[in-house]
Every structure is written in C-alpha cells, then in structure tokens.
Amino acid sequence: MIKKNYLEDLNNSKKPFIIYRSNKGFDLYTDFSKKIILTKNNIEKFINQSTKLKSKKKETDLFIGFFGYEILNNLIDIKVKKQKGLKFPKGIFYKPETKLKLPNKLNYKNLGLVRTNKLFKININKSSYKVIFDKFKKKIKSGETYQIKICTKYSNKSKIDALDFFCRLVRSNMAPEAFMIKDINYSIISCSPENLIDKKNDFITTKPIAGTLKKTKKFNKIKALAFFKKNIKENKEHNMIVDMERSDLSKICKAGSVKILKEKIVEEYKDLYHYVSLIGGRLKNNTSSLEIVKAMMPGGSVIGCPKISTLNLLNVQEKESRNVYTGSFGYIKFNGDMRFNIIIRSILNYKNKSEISVASGVVIDSNARHEFNENYIKAKALIDLYK
Amino acid sequence: MIYIIDHKDSFTHNVVHQFENFDDVMCDNHNEINEDKLKKSKVIVFSPGPGAPKDYPRSSNIYKRFKGKKKMIGICLGFQQILHCEKGEIIQQKKIYHGYQSKIKVISENSLFTKNSKFKVGRYHSLKLKEPFAAKNFEITMRCDISNVAMAIENNKEKIYGFQFHPESFLTENGNLLIKKILSA
C-alpha cells in the first residue's frame, strides 16, 4: 500500500508523473529515466525500436506517452499546413522506472492557491460554425466524405493544479481510458472513454464509440438501447464507424479473423450512455508496432469517414493546431503489447494556457445548431473544473 | 490472383478480406498500380471510394484496356466507374445513403441470382446512376426495393459485374455468397 500522503508529496516534488486508468483503479508511472520528444524524423525509429529492447518482464518495461494529431497525419503521409496555436511538442514518450497501483478513490486535496480563470474564448462562433458546416454538407452530397467532425476549441490563460483537476474530473466523470500527464511545463488531463488499440500477443481489439445520450430520469440502460436502435441517424453513424474499423483492422489482421465481438451495445457512465461496438482480430505473423499504429491511427471515430479524404478536408479547413486532441495516449510494452486510447474530453495546459477541444459529427441529416450546442455540452464538464 | 484497385477508401480492406476467402489477393492504390500484377491477375476489382468516377481517370483507363479480357468487378464507386466508362451518367441523388441498411430485389431473369429474391444490404453512396441507361450486354439486375435505384449490373458475356451496395459490409446479408457466385461465373 502506498502512503496516505503519497500523491500530495509526489505532486509537490515537481517530479513528472503519469496516471492511467486500470481495471480496478489507476496505475501511476514515475521516475522517468528517458523522455523522447517525437518529431517527423524520429517517430518511425522510436516505434520500431521500442519493441526491440531486451528486457521484457518488468512492469516498467514500456514506453508511455502520447502521439499528437499532426504527427499521426504525417505518419500516414498526410500533410498538415502550418497552423496557429501553442508550439506544443507533437508527441512525447517516457520510460518509467516506478509503477504503482492506486485505488479507485484518489486521495488528494489541493490546498494551495492557484490562479484559474473561468472565462474561455471560443475559436469558432456559431455563425462561422454554420459556414463550415454548410461547406462540409456539400462535400457529403458530392460524396467526398460521408461523415466529418468539426473541431472547436475553448481556451484561456490559467495556472492549474493538474492533479486536483484530474481527481475532481474522475470523481464526476470516471471513464475507462482516463489519464493525466504532469510534466514541468505542461499537463494533460482527460476522461477519454474510448479505447483505440488493445493488443496482447497476436490478438488486437478496438472499441469505437459512436452515439452519446445524456442520462435523465426517463432512461435506464434498456431504454437507452431502444433509443439508439430506433434512431436512424445514430445508427448510420455507428454503422459507418464499425465498417471503417473493421477495414483498419483488416489491414493488419489475418483474413477471416476480424469479427465484431460486441455489436452496438450500451455502456453506462455517470452522466451519459454510449453506443459502443467491440471489434477484434488476429494479427498477421510478424506485424510490426509501426504497422499497427499506422493502420489504426488517428482513430477513425473522431475524424469521420473515409479517413484519408476526410482528413484532407479537415486539414484544409482548420487554421489552428489540434495539438493532442484526437491523438492517442497509451503505452507500448517492450514485448510488443500495446494499449492506446483516443484523446478526447481533454485539457491541455501548456505554459499556463489551457485549451479544451471538442468535435461533433456532420452527416447528411445533422443540424448545425444542434451540433454546435452538442460541442458545448461536451466541453462543459471540463470547463466546470475551472472555478 | 485477384487485383484490387484501391480508391483510398476506409472500406477497401474489408473487400480484400472478403475476396481472400476465395483466392490470392493483391491490393494497391489507384495511383500506384503495378503493371505486372495487373497482367497476372485473373480478376480486377475496383474498390469503393470517395468522390466520383471522373476523379479516377487511371481506373477508367484500366477498365477500358481489360474489358472483355479479364473478369472485372466494381463496388460502390467501382460500380459507378464501370457505368461511367459505359457512357452512363452518375448524378447526385436527393436522399443520401451512408451507413444505411436497405432491402434490395433481384429483378432480372438473366441474373446469376434468383429473380424476385430479396435481401438486406449496406449502402454508402451520395451518387447514383442516371436512368434510362443502356449499354451493349449490360443489364441492371438488382434494384432498391423502395426507391428503385439501380443496385447491380451484370454483363455475363464479358464477365463484368458491379454492385452499388457493399457486399463486404457487416450490414449485408450473405455478402460472401454473392462474391462466390460472381467469382465462379
């Protein structure tokens, strides 16, 4: 068991650390012996070499960190024009020397004073959102994309206590892929619900979410499922993502092995229901980690479909860098096993600037005002942490 | 060997796995086509993809070169690609089907499939064939049960087949059987 004040002491020590949701509670990684900042030039080498290290047995024989959105585009040869925004690294991975288990209830209370700021600036207002929305709808009608996600960003200047934010966030919005990173000049806090890659030996699964329903007294899990099944728009969006993820897995899996393991089920969270499928397959012999990353990332459910033409449309439209948003956080073990999520519902705090990005999908029958408001609802749980 | 020409779609590898049930499969991007593979292949498949047939002149070129010489199969955009090469017009439809499951019906006696049989299929298309359409040896053999939009073409003489829907989608019933029949025709 860890000491009662362990988290407080760690947080005060200024030592970088990472917390990642596990089956029963959380795993904490710290005492980093290496920190690799990814660039276009070293990313392939990093992924390839990460599984060529000899030691494979210890719990800390892994690299943990994140790939940003831009570098994942570069990896599959998609150009992103020069964008505005924080000059934040495109990806960072750490080699931990210590791993500790933390309980479900994180014991930490912020006592010091920090200057947070409640006011946020949004980068796209309602009317410019409508313009982008209409432009993309035309692209759907001409068949260039079938579904595309418009990203909006809320930002402000704030000094935050990342650990305090994370503890409060998971108390109100526990999610299976929640994580936080705290380093000297930045922190990331996320309650991501979405697993993109879970790979053990030659078995790989992905668990896309498409469809979200806010919990009210009217609904229980069974009624939520009935709602999703009846809702043609939600079903179409979900179908598209299932076929796309099947195809992504098929690039690296043995023919005939890709199966839908759970088709359109409802998962219940504190404030919402998600419409989820689980798809898995057996990897072809000698599939490299790099091939897996390139086949699966960036995760399709938060981009749209088909992936490549939709990414190109997004990259022409978006003037501001997504940074970590819709990138992936997770780890690669030295034995080749991996776990990665999709970074959504996240806060990036860098040099005392905070940004929260959210996105919602445009399909042929979506409505601009509804999707704009939906974006705000998604951001609200995070914005509420600032007080 | 079956050679699949990929139009950078997010469903192409479902097509690859489906055809791998029956033969060896190679797959390359439409702008990285390998001439040797093209010549060695017994069957050429035009994959689904974004946009319209006019965006893929290389694929049209391949179709014209090998028409009558090899079996050719088109799926979704690939289906439209074949029609486009046969002077059919591809136009936007009012109601757009993306991720939609609908019932279709075999309407022709000359089809490889039983006339009047109905089954559910997955659809991802903004565009459709403008009708009337006529080309030598081609026949529209399946239609959407509700909207009547053309869903399959067969040219059993020159062994050219096309589906507007996606036989590889999890939304399509008996997709494997469909492909098996076409491949053994």
Describe the protein in words:
The complex is a heterodimer of chains A (387) and B (185). Helix content of chain A is 30%, strand content 31%. Chain A is an alpha+beta fold and 387 residues long. Chain A has 2 domains: 210 residues, Anthranilate synthase (4-Layer Sandwich), CATH 3.60.120.10; 76 residues. Chain A has an 18-stranded antiparallel sheet that branches. The longest helix of chain A has 21 residues. The radius of gyration of chain A is 20 Å and the shape is globular. Chain B has 185 residues and is an alpha/beta fold. Chain B has one domain: Rossmann fold (3-Layer(aba) Sandwich), CATH 3.40.50.880. Chain B is 24% helix and 35% strand. Chain B is built from 5 helices and 9 strands; from the N terminus they run βαβαβαβαβββββα. A 9-stranded mixed sheet of chain B has the order 2-1-3-4-9-8-7-5-6, sandwiched between helices. The longest helix of chain B is centred in the first third of the chain and has 10 residues. Chain B starts with a strand and ends with a helix. At the A-B interface, helix 7 and helix 9 of A face helix 1, strand 5 and strand 6 of B.
Short description:
The complex is a heterodimer of chains A (387) and B (185). By secondary structure, chain A is of the alpha+beta class.
Percentage of β-strand residues of chain B: 25-35%
- Name of the CATH architecture of the largest domain in chain A: 4-Layer Sandwich
Annotated CATH homologous superfamily of chain B: Class I glutamine amidotransferase (GATase) domain
What's the helix-strand series of chain B?
Answer: EHEHEHEHEEEEEH
Main beta-sheet strand count, sense and barrel state of chain A: 18 strands, antiparallel
Sheet with the most strands, sense and barrel status of chain B = 9 strands, mixed
Q: H/E order of the elements of chain A? A: HEEHEHEEHEHEEEEEHHEEHEHEEEEH
Q: What integer value in Å does the Rg of chain A equal?
A: 20 Å
